[in-house]
Design goal:
Elements: H1 3-19, E1 23-25, E2 28-37, E3 43-50, E4 56-60, E5 65-72, E6 78-80, H2 88-93, E7 100-102, E8 108-109, E9 113-116, E10 119-122, E11 131-132, E12 145-151, E13 154-163, E14 174-182, E15 187-196, E16 200-201, E17 205-207, E18 224-227, E19 231-233, E20 246-247, E21 259-260, H3 270-275, E22 279-283, E23 292-298, E24 304-310, E25 314-318, E26 327-328, E27 334-335, E28 342-346, E29 361-362, E30 368-378
Antiparallel strand pairs: 1-2, 2-3, 3-4, 4-5, 5-6, 7-17, 8-11, 9-10, 12-13, 13-14, 14-15, 15-30, 16-29, 18-21, 18-23, 19-20, 19-22, 22-25, 23-24, 24-30, 25-28, 26-27
Bound molecules: alpha-D-galactopyranose.
Residues 96-97, 132, 239, 279, 316, 318, 322, 342, 344 line the site of alpha-D-galactopyranose (GLA).
């Protein structure tokens, strides 16, 4: 069959499936179900995306949260590799950003203050004296408009949110579009776009907690991690960068060669002590804005491999230091200390207060446009 007739059949299938309330093509599909209501009574949905290999992602338009992600191990056995909850109620009650889209500014801004074009702005502070992950009610706690799509690469979900001028202290109406795509190459692709009507700052990220042995099964200390970065941004004790770009060589932050997360996580080292383990931003070697591998994680018991590719200059590696067994997630699993890790692609923390860091300023007429890929395979 030639490409155009193949595409016509796909399109016809999509129209038919659309009439049936879901999209499906070949083995790819996307379907929608109710996922409960917010405290204000707004109904939210859960979308299930399946690729041609049977890999499955569920995403809700509350917080644009990736609720689950099922990937095969080396024997083809599927397991959910992200932490999260089964109901929107639990996400509303308490979440350390499980699976969420985080913004308008992912990571910390010192004392919630910055100036832009000579004007001082004061943001909500929600991490002691600092601003973290967009503030008290960030992008992880709002309802997004969602549209299911069947793209050439696979099923996807397009999410829109307009963050009003002044929200959490940020200037400008920021119009945001996030596209999740689940491709037949077993990639979860996240594409971010935003425009503003006043100069503002923008640094959006994704905050999944991964455990490639299966969510809730055990800690993540045996995962072997490589980060393509020769430097990191050391922090003070409130986790704000000092401004230095410090070589990782000879420190517990050196992941240039694959190393088990647990090997040095309790090292006697000031940076490790400040973070309570790893909770730092790495300065990715690839700095030209092209797509490159930022990190690779291998879990030896399951054989699962996850690669993170991004065009962003930084990567926050957080190893679940604040998980302490008080949260119970999907399948009744208790999330204990270091049961999940996050690899948050981003610009560096507190960039608005560090003119020598890559800029996070977004101006009217410009487009914030960035892509990150979480790619799964086995070994
Ligand atoms: C980020 C931060 C951490 C922590 C988690 C959420 O990764 O860097 O310090 O706040 O989010 O618990």
């Amino acid at each position: 069959m030639n490409r155009s007739s193949h595409m016509m059949i796909r399109a016809a299938l999509a129209v038919f499936a659309c009439l049936m309330g879901s999209f499906a093509s070949a083995d790819q599909s996307i379907s929608k179900a109710a996922f409960g209501k917010t405290t204000e009574g707004t109904p939210v949905a859960l979308y299930t995306l399946v690729n041609a290999n049977g890999m499955k992602a569920t995403i809700t338009n509350y917080g644009a949260i990736l609720v689950s992600l099922e990937t095969p191990d080396r024997d083809g056995k599927m397991a959910d590799v992200t932490l999260g909850y089964e109901t929107v109620k639990e996400y509303i009650a308490e979440t350390p950003y499980f699976g969420a889209i985080v913004g308008r500014y992912g990571n910390r801004i010192a004392k919630g203050k910055f100036s832009l074009d000579g004007k001082q702005y004061t943001l909500a502070t929600n991490n002691d004296e600092n601003h973290l992950h967009g503030g008290v009610k960030g992008f992880d706690k709002v309802v997004w408009q969602a549209k299911a799509i069947l793209a050439d690469k696979g099923p996807g979900l397009v999410l829109n949110y307009v963050s009003p001028d002044g929200e959490e202290g940020y200037p400008g109406n920021l119009s945001v579009t996030i596209t999740y795509l689940l491709t037949d190459d077993n990639e979860l692709r996240i594409h971010y776009e935003a425009t503003t009507d006043k100069p503002t700052v923008c640094n959006i990220t994704h905050h999944s907690y991964f455990n490639l042995a299966g969510q809730g099964s055990r800690d993540i200390l045996g995962h072997e991690l490589m980060i393509a970065a020769k430097r990191f941004t050391p922090v003070d004790k409130t986790l704000i960068p000092t401004g230095e770009l410090r070589p990782v060589k000879g420190t517990p932050m050196d992941f240039t060669k694959p190393t088990a997360i647990g090997d040095r996580v309790n090292a006697k080292d000031e940076q490790i002590e400040f973070g309570g383990g790893y909770d730092h931003n790495w300065v990715l070697d690839n700095a030209d804005g092209s797509m490159a591998v930022a990190a690779r994680v291998y879990e030896p018991t399951s054989g699962r491999v996850m690669e993170v590719l991004t065009v962003e200059p930084g990567l926050q590696f957080y190893c679940g230091n604040f998980l302490d067994g008080t949260l119970t997630g999907k399948g009744g699993k208790v999330y204990k200390h270091r049961y999940g890790f996050c690899l948050e692609t981003q610009h560096f923390p507190d960039s608005p207060n560090h003119p020598d860091f890559p800029t996070t300023t977004l101006r009217p007429g410009e487009k914030y446009c960035t892509t990150t890929v979480y790619k799964f395979s086995t070994r």
